[in-house]
Amino acid sequence: MTPAGYALVTGGTSGIGLATARGLSDAGWRVAICGRRGDLVENLSATHGFVGLTCDVTDAESVAVMFASLKATFGRLDLVFNNAGRFAPARSFGDIEVDTWREMVDTNLNGAFYVAREAFRMMRHQQPQGGRIINNGSISAYVPRPQAASYTATKHAITGLTKAISLDGRAHNIACGQIDIGNAATDMTSHMNAGSLQANGTLAPEPTFDVAHVVDAVRYMAGLPLSANVQFMTVMATTMPYIGRG
Questions:
Q1: How many Å apart are CA 215 and CA 21, to the nearest integer?
Q2: Where are the chain's structural domains?
Protein backbone atom coordinates (compact mmCIF):
# COMPACT_ATOMS: atom_id res chain seq x y z
CA MET A 1 0.00 0.00 0.00
CA THR A 2 1.37 3.40 -0.98
CA PRO A 3 1.63 5.70 2.07
CA ALA A 4 0.01 9.13 2.15
CA GLY A 5 3.55 10.44 2.49
CA TYR A 6 6.66 10.22 4.62
CA ALA A 7 6.67 12.16 7.87
CA LEU A 8 8.99 12.97 10.76
CA VAL A 9 7.71 13.97 14.21
CA THR A 10 10.32 15.36 16.57
CA GLY A 11 9.72 15.04 20.29
CA GLY A 12 7.63 12.06 19.26
CA THR A 13 7.95 9.95 22.40
CA SER A 14 5.32 11.65 24.56
CA GLY A 15 2.45 14.14 24.72
CA ILE A 16 1.47 16.02 21.59
CA GLY A 17 4.28 14.49 19.54
CA LEU A 18 3.35 10.89 20.24
CA ALA A 19 -0.36 11.56 19.77
CA THR A 20 0.34 13.24 16.43
CA ALA A 21 2.63 10.44 15.26
CA ARG A 22 -0.15 7.95 15.99
CA GLY A 23 -2.70 10.11 14.22
CA LEU A 24 -0.58 10.51 11.11
CA SER A 25 0.11 6.78 11.03
CA ASP A 26 -3.62 6.06 11.30
CA ALA A 27 -4.17 8.42 8.36
CA GLY A 28 -1.81 6.38 6.19
CA TRP A 29 1.47 8.26 6.64
CA ARG A 30 4.73 6.39 7.07
CA VAL A 31 6.01 7.99 10.26
CA ALA A 32 9.42 8.37 11.88
CA ILE A 33 9.74 9.67 15.43
CA CYS A 34 12.79 10.95 17.21
CA GLY A 35 13.74 11.51 20.82
CA ARG A 36 16.78 11.56 23.06
CA ARG A 37 16.01 8.33 24.95
CA GLY A 38 16.97 5.46 22.68
CA ASP A 39 15.17 2.82 24.76
CA LEU A 40 11.89 4.73 24.67
CA VAL A 41 12.19 5.44 20.93
CA GLU A 42 12.86 1.76 20.28
CA ASN A 43 9.94 0.55 22.40
CA LEU A 44 7.43 2.96 20.86
CA SER A 45 8.62 2.16 17.36
CA ALA A 46 8.19 -1.56 17.94
CA THR A 47 4.71 -1.02 19.42
CA HIS A 48 3.35 1.39 16.82
CA GLY A 49 5.30 0.57 13.67
CA PHE A 50 7.18 3.87 13.56
CA VAL A 51 10.71 4.30 12.31
CA GLY A 52 12.58 5.19 15.49
CA LEU A 53 15.52 7.58 15.48
CA THR A 54 17.54 8.63 18.51
CA CYS A 55 18.47 12.29 18.22
CA ASP A 56 19.35 15.27 20.38
CA VAL A 57 17.86 18.21 18.51
CA THR A 58 20.14 20.64 20.37
CA ASP A 59 23.11 19.08 18.52
CA ALA A 60 23.31 20.09 14.84
CA GLU A 61 25.49 17.08 13.99
CA SER A 62 23.04 14.68 15.64
CA VAL A 63 20.21 16.20 13.58
CA ALA A 64 22.23 15.87 10.37
CA VAL A 65 22.91 12.20 11.12
CA MET A 66 19.19 11.65 11.75
CA PHE A 67 18.26 13.13 8.38
CA ALA A 68 20.85 10.98 6.63
CA SER A 69 19.16 7.95 8.21
CA LEU A 70 15.76 9.24 7.11
CA LYS A 71 16.95 9.65 3.55
CA ALA A 72 18.37 6.14 3.53
CA THR A 73 15.16 4.68 4.98
CA PHE A 74 12.41 6.68 3.26
CA GLY A 75 14.18 8.08 0.21
CA ARG A 76 12.22 11.31 0.59
CA LEU A 77 10.43 13.41 3.23
CA ASP A 78 7.03 15.04 2.73
CA LEU A 79 6.23 16.35 6.21
CA VAL A 80 8.00 17.44 9.37
CA PHE A 81 6.14 18.23 12.58
CA ASN A 82 8.82 20.29 14.31
CA ASN A 83 7.53 19.62 17.81
CA ALA A 84 10.44 19.04 20.21
CA GLY A 85 10.50 21.58 23.01
CA ARG A 86 10.53 22.12 26.75
CA PHE A 87 9.33 24.39 29.52
CA ALA A 88 11.51 26.21 32.04
CA PRO A 89 10.92 26.62 35.77
CA ALA A 90 8.88 29.73 36.57
CA ARG A 91 11.23 32.60 37.44
CA SER A 92 10.83 36.34 37.59
CA PHE A 93 12.84 37.89 34.77
CA GLY A 94 15.65 39.15 36.98
CA ASP A 95 16.11 35.70 38.51
CA ILE A 96 16.44 33.66 35.30
CA GLU A 97 19.76 31.83 35.27
CA VAL A 98 21.91 32.10 32.16
CA ASP A 99 22.17 28.31 31.93
CA THR A 100 18.37 28.04 31.89
CA TRP A 101 18.14 30.67 29.15
CA ARG A 102 20.70 28.82 27.05
CA GLU A 103 18.98 25.46 27.55
CA MET A 104 15.67 26.90 26.41
CA VAL A 105 17.18 28.56 23.35
CA ASP A 106 19.13 25.40 22.50
CA THR A 107 16.01 23.22 22.58
CA ASN A 108 13.10 25.41 21.52
CA LEU A 109 14.82 27.63 18.97
CA ASN A 110 18.14 26.17 17.87
CA GLY A 111 16.67 22.67 17.79
CA ALA A 112 13.77 23.83 15.65
CA PHE A 113 16.20 25.60 13.32
CA TYR A 114 18.49 22.57 12.94
CA VAL A 115 15.55 20.29 12.12
CA ALA A 116 13.88 22.74 9.74
CA ARG A 117 17.15 23.47 7.96
CA GLU A 118 17.88 19.79 7.29
CA ALA A 119 14.28 19.21 6.21
CA PHE A 120 14.45 22.21 3.88
CA ARG A 121 17.64 20.90 2.28
CA MET A 122 16.18 17.42 1.79
CA MET A 123 12.91 18.73 0.37
CA ARG A 124 14.71 21.16 -1.93
CA HIS A 125 16.78 18.44 -3.58
CA GLN A 126 14.36 15.51 -3.72
CA GLN A 127 12.19 14.65 -6.71
CA PRO A 128 9.38 15.53 -6.84
CA GLN A 129 10.61 18.64 -5.12
CA GLY A 130 8.97 20.10 -2.04
CA GLY A 131 7.32 19.24 1.25
CA ARG A 132 5.74 20.77 4.34
CA ILE A 133 7.19 21.89 7.66
CA ILE A 134 4.80 22.50 10.58
CA ASN A 135 6.37 24.28 13.53
CA ASN A 136 4.88 23.88 16.99
CA GLY A 137 4.57 27.40 18.32
CA SER A 138 2.45 28.22 21.36
CA ILE A 139 -0.05 30.67 22.75
CA SER A 140 3.16 32.15 24.19
CA ALA A 141 4.26 33.01 20.67
CA TYR A 142 1.82 35.90 21.02
CA VAL A 143 1.18 36.58 24.72
CA PRO A 144 3.51 35.67 27.61
CA ARG A 145 2.70 33.96 30.84
CA PRO A 146 4.10 35.48 34.04
CA GLN A 147 7.64 34.38 34.93
CA ALA A 148 8.24 32.67 31.57
CA ALA A 149 10.55 35.02 29.66
CA SER A 150 12.87 32.36 28.25
CA TYR A 151 10.02 30.20 26.95
CA THR A 152 8.17 33.23 25.58
CA ALA A 153 11.22 34.58 23.76
CA THR A 154 11.89 31.26 22.03
CA LYS A 155 8.26 30.89 20.97
CA HIS A 156 8.11 34.43 19.60
CA ALA A 157 11.23 33.52 17.63
CA ILE A 158 9.52 30.43 16.19
CA THR A 159 6.98 32.75 14.56
CA GLY A 160 9.76 34.60 12.78
CA LEU A 161 11.36 31.31 11.79
CA THR A 162 8.07 30.09 10.32
CA LYS A 163 7.63 33.23 8.25
CA ALA A 164 11.20 33.10 6.96
CA ILE A 165 10.93 29.44 5.94
CA SER A 166 7.64 30.16 4.19
CA LEU A 167 9.20 32.95 2.20
CA ASP A 168 12.38 31.13 1.20
CA GLY A 169 10.47 27.90 0.57
CA ARG A 170 8.33 29.35 -2.21
CA ALA A 171 11.05 28.79 -4.79
CA HIS A 172 11.27 25.09 -3.89
CA ASN A 173 7.61 24.12 -3.36
CA ILE A 174 8.15 23.99 0.42
CA ALA A 175 5.25 25.11 2.58
CA CYS A 176 5.69 26.08 6.21
CA GLY A 177 2.99 26.74 8.79
CA GLN A 178 2.69 27.02 12.55
CA ILE A 179 0.25 25.52 15.02
CA ASP A 180 -0.13 27.42 18.29
CA ILE A 181 -1.52 25.21 21.02
CA GLY A 182 -3.08 26.34 24.28
CA ASN A 183 -3.57 23.96 27.22
CA ALA A 184 -3.86 20.62 25.45
CA ALA A 185 -4.34 17.92 28.09
CA THR A 186 -0.99 16.10 28.36
CA ASP A 187 1.37 15.16 31.17
CA MET A 188 3.10 18.53 30.69
CA THR A 189 -0.11 20.45 31.43
CA SER A 190 -1.50 18.29 34.24
CA HIS A 191 -0.39 20.86 36.85
CA MET A 192 -2.82 23.42 35.41
CA ASN A 193 -5.74 21.72 37.13
CA ALA A 194 -4.20 22.64 40.48
CA GLY A 195 -3.58 26.25 39.49
CA SER A 196 -1.37 28.37 37.27
CA LEU A 197 0.10 31.77 38.02
CA GLN A 198 -1.98 34.57 36.50
CA ALA A 199 -0.90 38.07 35.50
CA ASN A 200 -2.56 39.57 38.62
CA GLY A 201 -0.43 37.36 40.87
CA THR A 202 -3.15 34.88 41.80
CA LEU A 203 -3.20 31.13 41.20
CA ALA A 204 -6.14 29.77 39.23
CA PRO A 205 -6.94 26.41 37.63
CA GLU A 206 -7.03 26.55 33.84
CA PRO A 207 -9.19 24.51 31.46
CA THR A 208 -7.60 22.04 29.10
CA PHE A 209 -8.85 20.26 25.98
CA ASP A 210 -8.38 16.85 24.41
CA VAL A 211 -5.09 16.49 22.55
CA ALA A 212 -7.04 14.67 19.81
CA HIS A 213 -8.10 18.08 18.50
CA VAL A 214 -4.44 19.02 18.02
CA VAL A 215 -3.92 15.81 16.08
CA ASP A 216 -6.93 16.62 13.89
CA ALA A 217 -5.52 20.08 13.20
CA VAL A 218 -2.07 18.80 12.24
CA ARG A 219 -3.61 16.16 10.02
CA TYR A 220 -5.66 18.83 8.26
CA MET A 221 -2.58 21.00 7.70
CA ALA A 222 -0.56 18.00 6.54
CA GLY A 223 -3.24 16.83 4.13
CA LEU A 224 -3.38 20.01 2.09
CA PRO A 225 -1.79 20.10 -1.36
CA LEU A 226 1.45 22.09 -1.43
CA SER A 227 -0.39 24.78 -3.38
CA ALA A 228 -2.28 25.63 -0.15
CA ASN A 229 -1.01 26.38 3.34
CA VAL A 230 -2.30 27.10 6.83
CA GLN A 231 0.16 29.80 7.83
CA PHE A 232 -0.93 30.01 11.49
CA MET A 233 -3.55 28.06 13.42
CA THR A 234 -4.46 28.45 17.09
CA VAL A 235 -6.09 25.51 18.87
CA MET A 236 -6.97 26.12 22.51
CA ALA A 237 -9.35 25.46 25.36
CA THR A 238 -12.22 27.85 24.70
CA THR A 239 -12.20 29.51 28.11
CA MET A 240 -8.48 29.51 28.87
CA PRO A 241 -6.95 32.88 29.80
CA TYR A 242 -5.44 33.83 26.45
CA ILE A 243 -7.81 36.36 24.93
CA GLY A 244 -7.63 39.03 27.61
CA ARG A 245 -4.61 37.51 29.33
CA GLY A 246 -3.22 40.08 31.74
A1: 9
A2: 6-236
